[in-house]
Amino acid sequence: MRLALRTRRRLLLTVALMFLTGLVAAGMAIYVERFSDSRAAQVTDTRACAGCDLAEIRLWWADLRGADLSGANLAGGRLWWADLTEANLAGADLHGASLWWSTLDRIDLTGTNLTGARMGRAAIADGKLRGAVLKNADLIGAVLDRADLRAADLTWADLRQSISRQADFRGARLEEANFYLADLTGANFSGADLTRASLVQGNFSRAVLTGANLREANLNKADFQMAILRGAQLMEAQLTSANLTEADLRGADLSRANIWKANLSGADLTDAKFTGATMNEVILDGARLCRTLLPEGQDDSGCSKPAR
Question: What does the DSSP 8-state code read for residue 299?
Fold first, then answer.
């Protein structure tokens, strides 16, 4: 009995040692792979390599604060947990690059190619991404507070659970982007294209979506309290249980939209169109209805109420 117990203990100790040896070997492999590349040493030492060919480079945990890598080729590079605070990567090529958990606050990514980049959990607050290409990019859980994403291309981008409070998405392409459970409080989407985008359970309170295209978008259970959707196109959109209390929907087109159980209390629906929309159990308490085209006809009952 004692012999069997000792044998089991030795076996467990052997397995534990093998596991620890494997971890050490993996860590050494990463270390050797990173520092055997002379390009990595040059970049980390000088923090200046504008226009350099750094494709497939490994820069794990690299300190690149304030580095100038503008116009550099970093396609397929691995920069996990790297610190690129206030770095300049304007016009760089980062398609397919991995930047998971990296710190990119106040970074300049103007016009940068980030197609298919993996940036989950990255910190990109106050980042400059105007005109950047982020098609099919992974931004799950990323923080983009106050980031400038004007005219950026985020088609098919995955922004689930991301935080982009007061971010600027004006004129951005966001077709079929995924904003599930994302926080976009106070963000500006004026003129943005969100065709077939998923905004399910997202927080868009006080956001500005003037003239935004939300055709066939999914806004189920999304929060648009006090949001500005003036002139927005929401044809055939899904708004089941959406919160639009005190929202500004003047001139918005919600034709053929599904607005089942949505809350439009106190919303301004002046000149809004609901032609062919499904409006079962919709709450309209205190809403302003003036030249509003409802499924059953035009409603002018609130024209006497003062406009905002």
Answer: E
